[in-house]
Specification:
This protein is α+β, with helices and mostly antiparallel strands. 35% of the residues lie in helices and 15% in strands. Strands 1-2-4-3 form a four-stranded antiparallel beta sheet, with helices on both faces. Helix 1 packs across helix 5 and helix 2 packs antiparallel against helix 5. The protein binds flavin mononucleotide.
Length: 170
C-alpha cells in the first residue's frame, strides 16, 4: 500500500475478529517499530506482545473495554526510563520516542491489512501488575492488533490545514 493510502485509511478499530495474525506479518510490524528514530538513537523502548488468551482476558483490569481483549494480539509499548534521553532543561523524551515507534507499527499494521487502536486511557498500576513490569519500565501506549470486525471510511474529520498552519511566525 502506498504511504499516503496508509495515512488516509488508518482508523481506530474497536471491534476485532478472533482470526490469528500471520507470524510474518507480525514480524514485519515489529521490525517497523524497531527501525523508528529516537533521540540520540537511544531506542528506549521495549515491545511487549501478549497473545495468551488468559492474559488477554485479564486486560479488562487494565482497560475497561472488552474489544481490546478480543484482538488476537495486544501490544504494549514500554519505555525504559533509565535509557531515555533527557534535554538539558530536564524535559524527558521517552514518550515521544515510544510514540514514534508505535506510529511506525500502526502504519505497518495498516499496510498489512490489520486493525489497531492507540490506547492511552489505561490504568497504569494495573498494567504494571499484570505484566510484572520493573519500576524503570513504564507502559506508554497499548494497541490491539487483528483483523477488523468493523469497516470505517478513510480519515475525514480533521482540521483544515489553514487552521493549523502558521508561516514564518505565529
Ligand atoms: C495518544 C492517543 C491516545 C489514544 N487513546 C485512546 C484510548 O485510550 N481509547 C480509545 O478508544 N482511543 C484512543 N485513541 C484513538 C483516538 O480517539 C482516535 O485516534 C481519534 O479519535 C481519531 O480517530 P481515528 O484514529 O479513527 O482516525 C487515542 C489516540 C491517540 C493518538
Amino acid at each position: 500500500m502506498d504511504f499516503y493510502d496508509v495515512v488516509r485509511s488508518r482508523r481506530s478499530i474497536r471491534a476485532y475478529k478472533p482470526a490469528p495474525i500471520e507470524p510474518e506479518k507480525l514480524d514485519r510490524i515489529l521490525q517497523a517499530g524497531r527501525l523508528a528514530p529516537s533521540a540520540c538513537n537511544l531506542q528506549p523502548w521495549a515491545f511487549l506482545l501478549v497473545t495468551d488468551p488468559g492474559t488477554r482476558k485479564d486486560f479488562i483490569k487494565v482497560y475497561k473495554q472488552p474489544w481490546l481483549c478480543e484482538a488476537p494480539v495486544i501490544l504494549v509499548i514500554c519505555a525504559d526510563t533509565k535509557k531515555a534521553w533527557k534535554r538539558w532543561d530536564g524535559q524527558e523524551y521517552w514518550q515521544v520516542d515510544c510514540a514514534i515507534a508505535m506510529q511506525n507499527m500502526i502504519s505497518a499494521a495498516t499496510a498489512e491489512g490489520l486493525g489497531t487502536c492507540w490506547i492511552a486511557a489505561f490504568d497504569e498500576p494495573a498494567c504494571v501488575k499484570l505484566l510484572n513490569l520493573p519500576a524503570h519500565i513504564r507502559p506508554v501506549v497499548i494497541t490491539p492488533i487483528g483483523y477488523a470486525a468493523e469497516t470505517k471510511d478513510p480519515v475525514a474529520d480533521r482540521l483544515p490545514l489553514e487552521d493549523i498552519l502558521h508561516r514564518e511566525r505565529w
